Amino acid sequence: MKVALVTGANRGIGREIARQLAHDHGFHVLAGARNPAEVVADEHLVPLRLDVRDAESVGAALAGIEANPGTLDVLVNNAGVYGEPTGVADYDLEEAHDVIETNLFGPWRMIQASLPLLRRSPAPRIVNVSSGGGQLAEMGGGRTAYRISKAGLNALTRTLAAEEAGSGLLVNSICPGWVRTDMGGLAATRSVEEGANTAIWAATLPEGGPTGGFFRDREPIPW
């Protein structure tokens, strides 16, 4: 049975990604959350205490995975925060730092900690849950810290994919679209099932699949 680790798996898109990987694709899923009691667990979906902002928490979580089950095939970096709608001139930089710490350095920290296990997998995959808000091609104003953090996450995706070219590790960013979650709000146009779709596709890509790309609805989109 393949093993996947999904961060921020206690709610929203992360919960649905974890559920589909476990129930529809036969993965043993480790569902990372700061409060693992919030994870809806079963025999194939196991809560894991994990705060992507905390190096000790990340290290302890990966040490636990190393001990049992001892393998990791997929990392889905989903945990993220939206931050304030504020523009560049007025954004509180301490608050901006918190957003970037979660949305960019959190995935980077997870990747560094997970790579030793992923490299042992015959088909390793990393999925970074990004956003259209981070597209330089269509960059607008407002939500400054969020936009910058997601643009940075896309750069991280492309850099790692280039460094791992030919290794078999496929690394991609995905945009779930505007999804009805606590972050997206009730007016959003997509269900969590629709929001999770492209992440599931990227997590289960076959050998020779794309790497270093940015996708929505399983199709490439501009950076």
Explained architecture:
This protein has 223 residues and is α/β, with parallel strands linked by helices. Helix content is 37%, strand content 15%. It is built from five helices and eight strands. An eight-stranded mixed sheet has the order 3-2-1-4-5-6-7-8, with helices on both faces. Helix 2 packs parallel to helix 3.
Could you list some keywords that capture this structure?
223 residues; eight-stranded mixed β-sheet
Give a count of the beta strands, DSSP E runs of length 2 or more.
8
What order do the strands of the largest sheet run in, or round the barrel if closed?
Answer: 3-2-1-4-5-6-7-8
Rg (C-alpha, Å): 16 Å
Main beta-sheet annotation? 8 strands, mixed
Stretches where pLDDT falls below 50 for ≥5 residues? none
| Measured distance between first and last alpha carbons | 34 Å
The helix content, as a percent range, equals 25-40%
Entry summary:
The chain has 5 helices and 8 strands; from the N terminus they run E-H-E-E-H-E-H-E-H-E-H-E-E.
Topology:
Elements: E1 3-6, H1 12-23, E2 28-33, E3 45-49, H2 55-67, E4 74-77, H3 93-118, E5 125-129, H4 144-163, E6 170-174, H5 192-203, E7 214-216, E8 219-220
Parallel strand pairs: 1-2, 1-4, 2-3, 4-5, 5-6, 6-7
Antiparallel strand pairs: 7-8
